[in-house]
Design goal:
The complex is a heterodimer of chains A (about 325) and B (about 375). With about 325 residues, chain A is α/β, with parallel strands linked by helices. Chain A is built from 12 helices and 14 strands. In chain A, the strands form 3 sheets. Chain A has a 6-stranded mixed sheet with strand order 6-7-8-3-9-10, with helices on both faces. In chain A, helix 6 (about 140-150) packs parallel to helix 7. Chain A is globular. A 4-stranded mixed sheet of chain B has the order 2-1-3-4, with helices on both faces. Chain B has helices at about 5-20, 20-40, 60-70, 85-95, 105-115, 135-155, 175-205, 210, 220-250, 255-280, 285-300, 315-320, 325-335, 340-365, and strands at about 50-55, 75-80, 100, 125-130. The chains are: A alpha/beta (about 325), B mainly alpha (about 375).
Chain lengths: ~325, ~375
């Protein structure tokens, strides 16, 4: 019983196959009660498949999953009233208003006394309470999805990519809502491929790649344990600088903003790089030297860019 | 099964329906338009009236009385042709299939016969007709029958053979009364099948069913609320159709418990087919195409619009395999003929079909993803 109270979720040797495709490959992890747990990985890594098995949308091929101390393959009826789920690509009834949608879901949970106004306030949708779902923007729709996931006052909340496809402002609005939930002490299982999201919200991050968990820990721990190097960032650098840096034995990469990032082990390597660019007559607008962030840790661990294929939309697993 | 859950789902569906104008149109207005259009077209089908062109060359009181007799017996609408024109040319020019020509001495000969001056006096009426016309024979037969009756009346003797008509029905029914039960059956079929297919594919594709599977609503609650929703729509639609039919066409149909029973069976059967379809064809457009492939043969071959006896033998056999045929016939048995035994027989057949299809539909409905 003590173990049940400590861990809201326990996953052991979980495997999921779709025909010949091994989407989840024998993963094990636990989620402590009251923590925000982020499952971090690129599209197709197996994040959504894992969360959908835990929240009982899918069934596992093998392995054990205990949610709130109960086997998810056997105790769905008992578990469902105690969890809230925002599935990936959440959608709702087009012509039903925000308030009516929340009333509908509260009735499904037989919670006639649900505080609909409170939920609407919580997700900052007071002005849109009488608006039909189809007239809401993407960010507002996601916030409604979060409110629905909370309608039964759940002990564990699953949020599968809650901010995918949202603009930065809408994403931050959703983060505000999630930070509010964190303050309430809810156990939150979050999947995301946004590093910043995991860093801001999560107590624990599990990095998943190709169906396997390759690192687990708090964002700080992950960085500490994988940061025996420095990151040199050069802004608006000449095109030929890439070749110059490569000749020095380093592997530069462009980030989302087209800045050039170089991973080096010693401060002397930074001077050596800058001098080499200068000697070749190259230039750059500004530079920054710092320890790696979670995204770079991810890159180091998986060799994959987190945002690869992001523009192509949702993922399979 | 939780009534509160079923009620919540039913309310959401009814609100969606109320706010979706297209769905409102096709569920309520479309069958009514169908009734109004076909009802108006076939309004006079029961009162046969044939156009008859008549050229009266005699222009006497007797010939005028003769023309009036033809007109007033109700079967002919008389259109006069100018005696000065050549009837044959006139028929050719105006593409007429028949002109009846009354000869010049019609009045004189008629009087001789009527006054018993000349017992064998007779008059020859000429049919100027187009033998290539398919309907002219019918028209000429009607005329021959009419003249036979007139001859008999002039003979002054009562006929030896008489007859009277006794209908097997309590009352004679009109085409519109045959038509309305067929349209009700068809409209309920379309609403149930397309409603299920459209809703299920849309909710599947949008991931709403996935979301619902994480709530306490069960597959049984979901299906039952869908049935109730379709049944409620069918009742509303049927009431609207009946009101229009009574108000515009003054139909005389029996409204009884059988009507509710057949509507419910119609809903069960076609919601069941819809559930099976959406299990195997999950893309919205393909599912609608598949639903169309089921609906169209059913609409035209199961006797919704006209009796299947008008179709070739092999199509009649095919019609008797279609479930809608039994709804049509059951509704007519109860609404027109008040034949409870026949209604029970048809209800048993469509009931058995609905039970099988609905059970298969429940099995086919996917609630949890990828086992």
């Amino acid at each position: 019983m003590a173990n049940q109270a400590k861990h809201a979720i326990e996953v052991e040797n979980l495997t999921k196959r779709y025909g010949n495709l091994l989407a989840v490959n024998g993963i094990s992890f636990t989620v402590r009660t009251g923590e925000v747990f982020a499952f971090l990985g690129p599209n197709g890594a197996g994040k959504s498949t894992t969360v959908e098995i835990i929240d009982m949308i899918r069934r596992p091929t093998s392995g054990k999953v205990r949610l709130l101390g109960m086997d998810v393959t056997k105790k769905k009826r008992a578990i469902v009233p105690r969890i809230g789920v925002l599935p990936q690509d959440f959608s709702s009834f087009d012509r039903i208003t925000v308030r009516e949608t929340l009333q509908f879901y509260s009735r499904l949970f037989s919670r006639g006394n649900a505080d609909i106004d409170g939920l609407i306030e919580l997700v900052h949708l007071k002005d849109k309470a009488e608006e039909q779902y189809k007239n809401l923007s993407g960010g507002l729709q996601q916030r409604l999805g979060i409110a629905i996931a909370l309608v039964n006052d759940p002990e564990v909340v699953f949020l599968d990519e809650p901010t995918t496809g949202l603009d930065p402002r809408a994403r931050r609005e959703v983060w505000d809502v999630l930070l509010g939930l964190k303050e309430q002490g809810k156990t939150i299982f979050l999947t995301t491929h946004y590093m910043e999201e995991a860093e801001i919200l999560a107590d624990t991050v599990a990095i998943i790649s190709k169906g396997k968990i390759i690192a687990t820990g708090s964002p700080v721990e992950l960085i500490e344990n994988n940061s025996n190097y420095l990151v040199l960032t050069l802004q608006s650098v000449d095109a030929n600088a890439v070749e110059i840096i490569r000749k020095l034995g380093f592997e530069p990469v462009h980030d989302n903003h087209q800045d050039l990032k170089v991973r080096v082990e010693h401060t002397e390597d930074i001077l050596k790089t800058l001098n080499a660019i200068k000697d070749a007559g190259g230039s750059f607008l500004s530079l920054d030297v710092r320890r790696p962030n979670l995204e770079e840790v991810f890159l180091k661990l998986t060799g994959e860019a987190l945002h690869a294929g992001l523009a192509e939309g949702g993922e399979v697993g | 099964m939780k009534l509160r859950v079923i009620r919540a789902n039913l309310i959401v569906k009814l609100k969606t329906f109320y706010r979706e104008r297209t769905a409102m149109f096709f569920t309520l207005a479309f069958p009514i338009i169908l009734i109004l259009v076909f009802g108006t077209i076939f309004l006079d089908r029961d009162k046969l009236s044939l156009d008859l062109y008549v050229q009266d060359l005699d222009h006497t009181q007797a010939s005028a009385k003769f023309v009036k007799t033809l007109q007033f017996n109700g079967n002919f609408k008389i259109i006069e042709v100018d005696p000065a024109t050549d009837a044959r040319e006139y028929a050719q020019k105006h593409k007429l299939n028949l002109i009846l020509v009354i000869p010049k001495d019609f009045g004189n000969l008629h009087d001789q016969r009527a006054d018993n001056k000349t017992h064998d006096a007779s008059v020859i009426l000429t049919y100027i007709y187009d033998p290539s016309s398919t309907s002219v024979k019918t028209k000429m037969e009607y005329l021959n029958m009419e003249f036979a009756g007139m001859n008999q009346r002039m003979s002054g003797r009562p006929p030896f053979y008489r007859w009277e008509e006794v209908s097997i029905l309590d009352q004679k029914y009109r085409f519109i009364e045959f038509f309305i039960p067929g349209v009700i059956a068809m409209a309920v079929m379309i609403a149930s099948l397309f409603g299920t297919v459209n809703m299920n594919t849309e909710l599947l594709q949008k991931g709403i069913i996935r979301k619902l599977s994480t709530t306490p609503i069960t597959r049984t609650d979901w299906i039952l609320s869908n049935i109730l929703y379709q049944f409620a729509l069918a009742i509303i639609s049927t009431i609207a159709m009946l009101l229009v039919s009574y108000w515009v066409f003054h139909v005389e149909l029996h409204i009884n418990a059988w009507l509710l029973g057949f509507i419910l069976l119609d809903v069960f059967a076609f919601v069941g087919i819809g559930m099976i379809l959406t299990r195997f064809v999950q893309e919205a457009q393909s599912a609608v195409a598949a639903a169309n492939a089921i609906v169209f043969p059913m609409m035209f071959l199961s006797g919704s619009f006209f009796p299947i006896e008008m179709m070739p033998g092999f199509l009649q056999t095919f019609a008797r395999v279609l479930p809608l045929y039994y709804v049509n016939e059951g509704l007519r048995a109860s609404m027109i003929f008040s034949d409870n035994l026949a209604a029970l027989r048809y209800a048993a057949i469509i009931g058995a079909f609905a039970a099988v299809v609905f059970a298969l539909g429940i099995i086919a409905t996917k609630w949890e993803e990828g086992k």
